[in-house]
Amino acid sequence: MKPSTLFDKLWRAHVVRELGDGWALLHIDRHLLHEMSGAPALTELMERGLPLRNPELTFATADHILSTAPGRRGDSYAPGAKLWRSLRTHCESLGIRHFDLDSGEQGIVHVIGPALGLTLPGATVVCGDSHTCTHGALGALAFGIGSTEIVHVLATQTLAQRKPRNMRLRFDGAPGTGVGAKDLILSAIGRYGADAGSDYAVEYAGDAISRMGMEARLTLCNLSIEFGAKYGFIAPDDTCIEWIAGRLHAPQGADFERAAAAWRQLRSDDDARFEREECIDASRVAPTITWGTSPEHAMPVDGVIPDPAHADAATAAAWRKALDYMALEPGRPIAGTPIDFVFIGSCTNSRLDDLRAAAAVVGGRKVAPRVEAWVVPGSAAVKRAAEAEGLASLFTAAGFQWREPGCSLCVAANGERVPAGARAVSTSNRNFVGRQGPGARTHLASPAMAAAAAIAGKIVDVRCSA
Amino acid sequence: MSAPFTTVAGLAIPLPVANVDTDTIIRIEHLLDNGRAALREHGFAALRLRADGSEDPACALNQADLAHAPILVAGRNFGCGSSREHAVWALEVRGIRVVIAASFGDIFVNNCYQNGVLPVTLEAPQVDALLEEAQARRPLTVSLLEQRITTTDQRHFAFSIGPWQRQRLLSGGDDIALTLADRAAIDAWQRHDRGHRPWIWSAHS
Ligand code: SF4
């Protein structure tokens, strides 16, 4: 048989019907819902009188428009209350498993899916959310979908999709101190562009990936969509399979062994062909931060802000707009730029390892005066674990706010915003104009870099923050 | 469910900005607004409005002669970012049925097809040529049947689209009904899978 990529294999295994010209009707193994896109889709399903085909493959939680203020309830943020209630009611009546606030398992959908063992290698996973690519870290074929597609999956447990091309992005070599998954992927987006992965499914490989823990892999795959790729994934290896073992909804016992044997087969053939292959020397990547309003505006933290004078006309225009919005001057070092806000959270960087990395940088120090700094754990489980190992008290003693799990400042849909004109270092994934609130200026960075910025009150190279 | 698509002719809005994300097309809080009229009012606010909230007359999206233009010529990576389908609805409420760019966000492309909006990917120099037409206010004709865009001086720009997707756009209609007609194939697939991958089917406990 013709050598295949992992993506080819995952795709082929889910084809219910070939539709011609690269289109196929794919079976969907896991459908994750959140209140913002999921609740209206469930309402539409009911209104159209369509039955939910497979409630046992459908799971829900609320994250986007919930308040994350300490002690919040589902209805604390009034505009979101209706959708949260609607999600609850629909899940109850349709028999959908809902990880609600009182379940102890609520959290950002891309944090809880893998952590609860819902996301599995070889599974197709969809959600009405572009960061569904996160789940690819477990060797799943995971992708974000729109509102109409959500209803289609609810009614049919399938989706018609066009097969994209294959790309492999290798990270080889050992990253230096202060450099993690966030830096690696941001620097790749900076190098190749925010649309480099457009119309590609991207497999991450290389020895830097093999050595990477699962939470770091989730961070890396999370930013696939910022690379332009709807699908980004890593072949499941022992690290992955051991990480899944024993999780709440993962297969157990003999079932697990049988599954694990199948998962070990999920890899690209040695001679498989990729339409595009790139390789990054991880040992040469510096701690990375964005300066502009696209994730491709990424730069080493010890570099100088790029000058539009050195770019082609179209790029120069975009850079000028971005510099203007961000109130930055070209040619100046980015380190030393004073900041007002720090956000540690989001489906990119709100897992236990992320909080540990941030806490390690904070040590016993304090957040700089006039800086507002938030830590928003990704799930109730992460919150409990971080409290149990003393991270929460370390953060609060340093002057950080320790909040309830949810999307929070990543998307500013829940009333929580970075004020207009304020400059934030944020561990989330999007630095778009106004993403963290109208007029907010966002610099994307790793949890360690965000923590270092909170302490210093300015952007600093985490390698010099002791 | 979408209206059938055959030929679209009219002026094109020039929007030569790279990486226009779906947050920029429609801010998240307007996803909670009722009805699509709000999408018209708030669509592209980050590009249309100045810092003081007034309309920027330099932005093509504000120009009266383009208020109902059915075509948009955009910069590369148009519609990147969030999966919100409201971004496509925000185009639809302005009457836009065709978006031309050198590259698109992949989720946005699928959302376009779901709503009878045609995303056309062309090489950058071709997009630039059409941008010139848009800026000069010379109308374009987009024929899905012939798979080409024609300028007033009869230059043709061929584009590719899969036959299956093309047929769906031409006939409009409802994907869900189409798939449900294939129910037996889904049943058979699932029956086989339950034996093959039991672990997929046992999570809901
Ligand atoms: S944390 Fe941000 S990126 Fe992630 S799901 Fe929530 S809003 Fe989307």
Summarize the structure.
The complex is a heterodimer of chains A (466) and B (205). Chain A has helices at residues 6-13, 35-47, 78-94, 109-115, 147-156, 181-192, 207-210, 214-222, 238-244, 253-263, 313-326, 352-362, 380-388, 391-398, 447-456; strands spanning 15-20, 23-27, 30-34, 58-61, 97-99, 124-127, 141-144, 158-162, 165-172, 200-205, 231-233, 276-281, 288-290, 298-300, 341-344, 372-375, 401-402, 423-426, 441-444.
Could you walk me through the main structural features you see in this protein, from its secondary elements to its overall organization?
The complex is a heterodimer of chains A (about 475) and B (about 200). Chain A has 15 helices and 19 strands. By secondary structure, chain A is of the alpha/beta class. In chain A, strands 5-4-3-6-7 form a five-stranded parallel beta sheet. In chain A, strands 17-16-15-18-19 form a five-stranded parallel beta sheet. In chain A, helix 2 links the parallel strand 3 (about 30-35) and strand 4 (about 60). Chain A starts with 5 loop residues before the first helix and ends in a 10-residue tail after the last helix. In chain A, about 65% of the residues are buried. By secondary structure, chain B is an alpha/beta fold. Chain B has a single domain (about 5-200), classed as Aconitase, domain 4. Helices cover about 35% and strands about 15% of the residues of chain B. Chain B has nine helices and eight strands. In chain B, the strands form two sheets. Chain B has a four-stranded antiparallel beta sheet. In chain B, strands 2-3-4-5 form a four-stranded parallel beta sheet. Chains A and B meet through strand 1, strand 2, helix 3, helix 5 and strand 8 of A and helix 5, helix 7, helix 8 and helix 9 of B.
